[in-house]
């Protein structure tokens, strides 16, 4: 008996998107009367949807940021093993609200002595704490690699 292939499923098109009223329609609706002191310049007020560019107060700019190193020049001396060449240990540091390190986790390890040295170096550093949108320090984390060169 031959196989019967079912017909393809055709989905109906999405419903049309409603457009916001045009300026003329908003004026006819009575928004922003000529003598209304609360009306915007031009005598029209209202709300809208979508994205746009133009003058206005807008939202308050966020002060949020991630935690990071206060100083990127620090040197973490290698624990010997010159024959290994370049070694990189990637770590994640929990940064407390005062900029001091909390828990330090090795994310990508190298030889065990290098891992220990990287954790010790990270605990000896100071960091910039993360900030929330209002600019208040919060607990965050910073992830970076420590490179041990010959």
Q: What can you tell me about this protein's structure?
A:
This protein is an alpha+beta fold. It is 12% helix and 23% strand. The chain contains two helices and seven strands. The protein has a three-stranded antiparallel beta sheet with strand order 3-2-7, covered by helices on one side. It has a two-stranded antiparallel ribbon with strand order 1-4. A hairpin with a 5-residue loop joins β2 and β3 (101-108).
Unreliably modeled segments: 30-35
Task: Tell me the fraction of residues in β-strands, as a range.
Answer: 15-25%
Rg measurement, Å:
30 Å
Shape: flat
CATH topology of the domain at 68-148: TolA/TonB C-terminal domain
What is the averaged pLDDT score?
Answer: 78
Q: Supply the CATH class of the domain at 68-148.
A: Alpha Beta
Output the strand order for the largest sheet.
Answer: 3-2-7
- Number of DSSP helical runs: 2
Content-based structural category: alpha+beta
What is the string of helix and strand elements?
A: HEEEHEEEE
Question: Which architecture of the domain at 68-148 would the CATH scheme give at its second level?
Answer: 2-Layer Sandwich
Helix content: 10-25%
Q: How many individual β-strands?
A: 7
Question: Distance between the terminal alpha carbons, to the nearest Å?
Answer: 75 Å
For the largest beta-sheet, the strand count, sense and barrel status come to: 3 strands, antiparallel
């Amino acid at each position: 008996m031959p196989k019967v292939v079912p017909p393809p499923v055709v989905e109906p098109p999405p419903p049309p998107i409603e457009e916001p009223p045009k300026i003329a329609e908003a004026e006819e609706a009575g928004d922003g009367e000529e003598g209304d002191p609360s009306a915007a310049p031009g005598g029209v007020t209202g709300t809208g949807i979508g994205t746009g560019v133009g003058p206005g107060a807008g939202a308050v700019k966020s002060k949020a940021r991630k935690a990071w190193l206060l100083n990127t020049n620090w040197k973490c001396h290698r624990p010997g093993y010159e024959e290994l060449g370049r070694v990189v240990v990637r770590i994640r540091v929990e940064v407390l609200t005062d900029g001091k390190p909390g828990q330090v986790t090795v994310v990508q390890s190298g030889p065990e002595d290098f891992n220990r040295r990287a954790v010790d170096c990270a605990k000896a550093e100071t960091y910039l704490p993360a900030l929330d949108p209002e600019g208040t320090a919060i607990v965050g984390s910073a992830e970076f690699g420590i490179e041990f060169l010959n």
